[in-house]
């Protein structure tokens, strides 16, 4: 089976690509980062150090191919692929859709009847369905019957931590990865035979797993990042050592967790145990993940259907507490990093229009609603306490 993985960063090399190669498939990495692609072609191998709290293992990765995403041959590789996976970041899916559309059109012109499945392994709810919508818009409607028959768009939930500062050797390819790795896919969306891939689990109830991950792990992760940034911490590990931050993060995950328990009838003890495991993962000293990486793109994270606002609104809907979630949202609004364009855009909006109109625009909350008033009040409290300390 020919597999193309788009995005040769840490998740791509440390989890998805590794799983595909260990399953015995032919894998090609592609990326717009010339340095990574050149390094993959030069070294032709790299190492992953898998780490847990009481566990370490070195894994050697080789027998892969690599090509720049801008290479003229990429459409041919797409047309010949049986499976395409991505780990490019949700904000890059629109650009990826253009390239995939061109490759799929070549596949159509070649009259290929070999099924192609696409899985977007991104921190975005139903990322592949989103990618599908864009691709269908870019390909003429007369070919949609072909797409529906031969191209599967498979949503997934992916959960692992591969820090950005994870290289432990002198080349840029070696990395440290968490030993906890979860990849769950929707079996109903595949075309043809479902490939057997190590670490990939099949589910017919994917939505609950997606929400469990996004509204628990990702919710806790970004709140740890935003509150840690305010206190000038550099890593998630440093931030979660702060007892005040840890209590807010755990409280926010429990507030969100109660909504998931209500919505999906999760077992309460099992879900709260899942939250405790996440906190242990954040405290792994080997995973010194940069706050800057987790906090990036706050505009996306503050959307109404995302990891901060969605559990907040669900908690309100079900009449649960949301005090800690409110603190996390306010922390995201307060995040200012001159290296992060979205954070600076939020700052400009707040300066020009105020916190309430900004929330209305960014999160689609109604002006002067109880929700906006609560978040605005918490934001003002943070601003009063940390006034004049926005930039580092």
Automatic annotation (TrEMBL):
It is an enzyme of class 1 (oxidoreductase). Residues 1-197 form the Mannitol dehydrogenase N-terminal domain. InterPro entries: 6-PGluconate_DH-like_C_sf, 6PGD_dom2, Mannitol_1_phos_5_DH, Mannitol_DH, Mannitol_DH_C, Mannitol_DH_N, NAD(P)-bd_dom_sf. Its EC number is 1.1.1.17. The keyword Signal does not apply. One of its GO terms (biological process) is mannitol catabolic process. It holds the Pfam family Mannitol_dh. One of its GO terms (molecular function) is mannitol-1-phosphate 5-dehydrogenase activity. Keywords: NAD, Oxidoreductase. Residues 205-346 form the Mannitol dehydrogenase C-terminal domain. SUPFAM superfamilies: 6-phosphogluconate dehydrogenase C-terminal domain-like, NAD(P)-binding Rossmann-fold domains. GO terms for cellular component: cytosol. It catalyses: D-mannitol 1-phosphate + NAD(+) = beta-D-fructose 6-phosphate + NADH + H(+). Belongs to the mannitol dehydrogenase family. This is Mannitol-1-phosphate 5-dehydrogenase. It comes from Buchnera aphidicola (Aphis gossypii). The gene is mtlD.
